[in-house]
UniProtKB/TrEMBL annotation:
It comes from Sesamum angustifolium. It comes from the Eukaryota. The lineage of its organism: Eukaryota, Viridiplantae, Streptophyta, Embryophyta, Tracheophyta. One of its GO terms (molecular function) is RNA-directed DNA polymerase activity. This is Reverse transcriptase RNase H-like domain-containing protein. Pfam families: RT_RNaseH. InterPro entries: DNA/RNA_pol_sf, RT_RNaseH.
């Protein structure tokens, strides 16, 4: 089927449905260092997109889990066109952030993060830093 030709009728078939169902889920790997943050969008163990940037002056004063959450927010915002409407996994080496969704009382800054994250359908996974080579490198050496 060539939908680029004039007067082509488009039909959704069982084969298309099966191919759509088999799309591999995304994984968002994030990390933050003392000076920068980074992230890798992965699908089927292959990188789809990379992100990194220097921390802003005010962000340099954040504690570790706040820097990690800043990395999450930055990457989700950059890749929202990939992630909205799909279930995905956020991988971080900061175990505290894996409990973020369960918090009842949050400071204002974290409440804003929770509101932003509410747009997405994801699970948190903790993976020790020694197993996050690519994203760790992105957060240390700006790309």
């Amino acid at each position: 089927m060539n939908l680029l030709k004039k007067d082509q009728k488009w039909e959704w078939t069982v084969a298309y449905d099966e191919a759509f169902r088999l799309l591999k889920p995304f994984e968002v790997q994030v990390d933050a260092s003392d000076r920068a943050l980074g992230g890798v969008l992965v699908q089927d163990k292959h990188p789809v997109a990379l992100e990194s940037r220097k921390l802003k002056d005010v962000e340099l004063r954040y504690c570790t889990h706040e820097k990690e959450m800043t990395a999450v927010g930055h990457c989700l915002d950059a890749w929202r066109h990939y992630l909205l409407g799909t279930k995905f996994t956020i991988v971080t080496d900061n175990v505290a952030n894996t409990y973020f969704k369960m918090q009842q009382k949050l400071p204002l800054k974290q409440a804003h993060w929770q509101e932003f994250l509410g747009e997405f359908n994801f699970d948190w996974v903790h993976r020790p830093g020694k197993h996050n080579d690519v994203v760790d490198a992105l957060s240390r050496k700006l790309v």
